[in-house]
Amino acid sequence: MGRVTAPTPVIPVPPADLPGTLGALRAAGHQYRTVKQELRDNLLARMRSGEPRFPGIVGYDDSVLPEVERALLAGHDMVLLGERGQGKTRLIRSLGALLDEWTPVIPGSVLNEHPLHPLTPASRAQVAEAGDEQPVGWLHRSMRYGEKLATPDTSVGDLIGDVDPIRIAQGRTLGDPETIHFGLVPRTNRGIFAVNELPDLAERIQVALLNVLEERDIQVRGYQLRLPLDLLLVASANPEDYTNRGRIITPLKDRFGAEIRTHYPVDLHLELDLIRQEADLVAAVPEHVLEVLARFARAVRESPSVDPRSGVSARFAIAAAETVAGAALRRAGLLAATATPEGRPEAAVARVGDAVSVTSTLRGKVEFESGEEGREIEVLAHLLRTATAETFRAHLAGLDLSGFTALVEDGAAIETGELVSASELLRQVGTVPGLAKVLDRLDLGDAPTPEEAAAAVEFVLEGLHLTRRLGKDVTDSGRTVYGGRG
């Protein structure tokens, strides 16, 4: 077996027409700006042009994003507070798109120093000696974002830096910045640095960030380096940790200019938008099935059986959609040998019955109240049935579905389930009065595929069962049998 190596990150190549020397940079009219000035100017430019400011961020247009924009325009460092899966990290990472695409740097500078604003004595001496012939490098905005997940083993050296004993041994003095191996924060100078889950940092490590936020310099091993760092510091935290466990020290909280609360999608359509955007679906999932899953996620979030302090991540609904698509693909794979009446293999289209598998595979994403131990799957199954019934009423309320109930009169039954093909299900129901209106209400079009029609039929049968108009049994073989209520 060959040796496995890590993939090499692709570093963007700057355009050839960018200035290559300090003299050319001045001649081009370049003006030095701090990171916060750069973010402010570029945000205002997007506002004026109507260009999207935070593409990919769903559900925050009228709540969180205006607060983020006010913080950026004010030049404030910020902390985002919210339960898990509310998109805090996604939002933080999107801030990098507001930086200039390319920014000039002194080649080889660990601190990404600007040629017009060098920080270290060595860089100042280099620029003074070279003058207009000082070479200029260019840094892409994707390389100006740094991030650290706060873990209990994080050290001051990781974040700020430490003395390099090898450089001391080479004869440099202890107060020389060249003796320092800089940590993640100074290495992100002239960029954005994010600390995820800030309360998990030990309090003595949080102290190391005080100077970064206020004086904009760093302290290493007892002596102070006057390096005016230029960066935007952003942190995320769970409000439960933030307010109750007191893990963020008071002086650090005071130094953040803005505290912004995030939230889960407020409306059902936003939850659906998020699922559509984020879910990697391996099979077709009709809109009514996605809506069932979105309602299901919201019902779990609001259930008294679930611990409200932990929250129910947006990843729950996304993973549910992917699981349902996986179940549809599995059915298509197992039925591959069984051709449809048209002579083609079964297409992978999800049905509402495929959602049953979600209750067992995703229960680990939910933290239940202590009194619900052992009832987790039962609670989730009940909430899934409730979500299905609500979706059924939302789309098919007031529709004459007597043609479906007539199918099971006189003891007849309809079998469906994980391994029942679309053609087999449609053969059992035949021509059903009212099916065309059902397909129209479910936005499946005038000419749905047999698999889409089967998904609609199964949804109607399940909805009629949940509204107590049909009976239902599950056989030992996993098939679902719908019949009259007897």
Provide key terms for this protein.
486 residues; alpha/beta; Rossmann fold; five-stranded parallel beta sheet; three-stranded antiparallel beta sheet; 21 helices; 14 strands; elongated
Tell me what you see in this structure.
This protein has helices spanning 22-27, 35-49, 64-74, 88-94, 121-130, 156-159, 165-169, 184-187, 203-207, 210-213, 239-245, 250-255, 268-278, 287-302, 314-334, 358-361, 376-396, 402-405, 422-429, 435-441, 450-466, and strands at residues 78-81, 102-105, 137-140, 145-149, 161-163, 180-182, 191-196, 218-220, 223-225, 231-237, 258-261, 413-417, 471-474, 479-483. The protein has a five-stranded parallel β-sheet with strand order 4-7-10-1-11. The protein is elongated, with a radius of gyration of 30 Å. The protein has 21 helices and 14 strands. The chain is α/β, with parallel strands linked by helices. A hairpin with a 2-residue loop joins β8 (218-220) and β9 (223-225).
Blueprint of the fold:
Elements: H1 22-27, H2 35-49, H3 64-74, E1 78-81, H4 88-94, E2 102-105, H5 121-130, E3 137-140, E4 145-149, H6 156-159, E5 161-163, H7 165-169, E6 180-182, H8 184-187, E7 191-196, H9 203-207, H10 210-213, E8 218-220, E9 223-225, E10 231-237, H11 239-245, H12 250-255, E11 258-261, H13 268-278, H14 287-302, H15 314-334, H16 358-361, H17 376-396, H18 402-405, E12 413-417, H19 422-429, H20 435-441, H21 450-466, E13 471-474, E14 479-483
Parallel strand pairs: 1-10, 1-11, 4-7, 7-10
Antiparallel strand pairs: 2-3, 5-6, 8-9, 12-14, 13-14
Helix pairs in contact: 2-3, 13-14, 13-15, 14-15, 14-17, 17-21, 19-21
